[in-house]
Design brief:
285 residues; four-stranded antiparallel β-sheet
């Protein structure tokens, strides 16, 4: 009998929307009574029983929680899965960057002869910057690597194949007049004597014989630091470029020695030696 009364007081419909409306109305009734008790301090009517949540609402809530859990699990699985795209991102991109730097920015060479002693000795391995002269201008004192212009390597005491490249110190720029009056005399550039003791091999003269060369446009004048054993621009004045090196053949400027480890260190360009040398008339330097 009591069950019938309860059912009569709170009828349940087969319509889900009707059940939801009934549930909302019952909740409003309980809220209204709560306000009445707060206002009067007494209970004016019996407390309505708590409305039962419609079955479809509970089912919907459970389904939503399950869907959320499934989505989180799927996301976790996606995060743990290493794709081909991830491989190229973490492996391919760094390799590509290294290759681009190697091709366009730096070069590696082995010293083949004794012409640059004691700055560099045969077997030293050096790293060069390819940005000069492609982007930056050459300067007097730069240690430059260049393609062998006219079989210079055949005339040097070479201990290893140079790969068709030589390395020397740049002394004269286009328009410069480079001269020396012979043994015991300094090299002069545009009439100004330079003190080369900071890089010339000890006990060696700047030049054992006199010479005078005007550097033509698009070329540079180079000499080895070991002047007594360097077949440089002084020795090739009868070749096609009169002993000068075309700037287009310069492939880089020495930065550092990286091997062997006990020879590790920067290559000094000694620009300060040339600070008082005036630019030649019409020079771009």
């Amino acid at each position: 009998m009591q069950d019938d009364q309860d059912n009569a007081e709170f009828p349940i419909s087969d319509n889900p929307e009707s059940n939801q409306t009934s549930y909302d109305d019952e909740a409003d009734a309980r809220d209204s009574r709560t306000f009445q008790v707060a206002d009067h301090g007494i209970a004016l009517s019996p407390v309505p029983p708590a409305p039962a949540r419609p079955a479809h609402a509970a089912s919907s809530a459970g389904a939503g929680a399950a869907a959320g859990a499934n989505a989180a699990a799927a996301s976790s699985m996606d995060d743990d899965h290493f794709t081909l795209r991830d491989f190229f991102l973490w492996c391919g991109v760094p390799v590509l960057i290294v290759l681009l730097i190697r091709i366009f920015a730096v070069g590696f060479y082995e010293i083949p002869s004794r012409s640059m002693m004691d700055t560099m000795v045969p077997g030293d391995r050096v790293v060069t910057s390819k940005l000069t002269p492609k982007i930056f201008d050459l300067q007097r004192g730069d240690v430059v690597v260049f393609k062998d212009p006219n079989n210079w390597l055949n005339e040097e005491q070479s201990s290893a194949p140079g790969g068709g490249y030589l390395i020397k110190r740049l002394i004269g720029l286009p328009g410069d007049v480079v001269e020396c009056k012979g043994a015991g005399q300094p090299v002069t550039i545009n009439g100004v004597a330079i003190n080369e003791t900071s890089y010339i091999r000890p006990g060696v003269d700047p030049s054992a014989f006199p010479f005078s060369v005007t550097v033509t446009e698009g070329h540079v004048f180079v000499m080895g630091d070991n002047r007594a054993n360097s077949a440089d621009s002084r020795y090739h004045q009868d070749d096609g470029d009169r002993g000068l090196v075309p700037i287009s053949d310069v492939v880089g400027v020495g930065i550092a020695k990286y091997w062997p480890l006990d020879r590790l260190g920067a290559i000094d360009d000694h620009h300060e030696v040339f600070k008082d040398v005036p630019d030649a008339f019409g020079s771009n330097s």
